[in-house]
Amino acid sequence: MLVDAAVVEEFRGWATGSSADGEAEADGRVRLRVTAPSEQVLERRLAAWAREAEVIEPASLRDRLAELGAALAARYR
Questions:
Q1: Residues 10, 11, 17, 22: is their CA dihedral positive or negative?
Q2: How far is it, in rounded angstroms, from Cα 3 to Cα 55?
Q3: Residue 8, CA atoms < 13 Å, CB-side half-sphere
Q4: What is the phi/psi pair of residue 65, to 5°?
Q5: Which of 37, 42, 65, 77 makes a 20 to 30 Å CA pair with 19?
Q6: Is the dihedral of CA 19, 3, 55, 31 positive or negative?
Q7: Model's pTM, two decimal places?
Q8: 24: number of CA atoms within 13 Å, CB side?
Q9: Is 11 exposed, middle or buried (0-12, 13-18, 19+ CB in 10 A)?
Q10: 14-72 confidence digits (pLDDT tens)
Q11: Rounded CA separation 21/69 (Å)
C-alpha cells in the first residue's frame, strides 16, 4: 500500500498488522504492508481510506476495490 504521509500514523494505529516497508516514495506517500484474515476483510477496511491510500497489490484486491467504487458511484448518482 501507499499511504499519504499526513495520515500514516492514524492509518497504522487503525490497521493492525501494518508494517513499514521502507522510506517515503518520491511523491511523499509511505509504503506499508497490511495484513488481515481475508481479502474480503481488507476490502471492507481499506474502502474507508480510498482518498488517502492506494493498494499496490494484490491485483485481485485492487479489482475488488474498483468494483466497490463503481457500485458506490452508481448508487449515489
A1: negative
A2: 9
A3: 19
A4: -65, -35
A5: 65
A6: negative
A7: 0.84
A8: 9
A9: buried
A10: 876 666 666 688 898 999 988 889 999 999 999 999 999 999 999 999 999 999 999 99
A11: 27
What is residue 28's DSSP assignment? Answer: S
pLDDT of residue 34: 87
Task: Give which of 23, 21, 64, 25 is closest to 55, Cα–Cα.
Answer: 64
Amino acid at position 74, single letter = A
Query: Grid coordinates standing for 47?
Result: 474502502
- Best CA proximity match to 56, nearest among 27, 38, 31, 20: 31
Helix/strand/coil for 30? strand
**Residues 70 and 29: beta-carbon distance below 8 Å:** no
Residue 43 near residue 64, CB atoms below 8 Å: yes
What are the residue ranges of helices labelled H in 27-58? 39-47
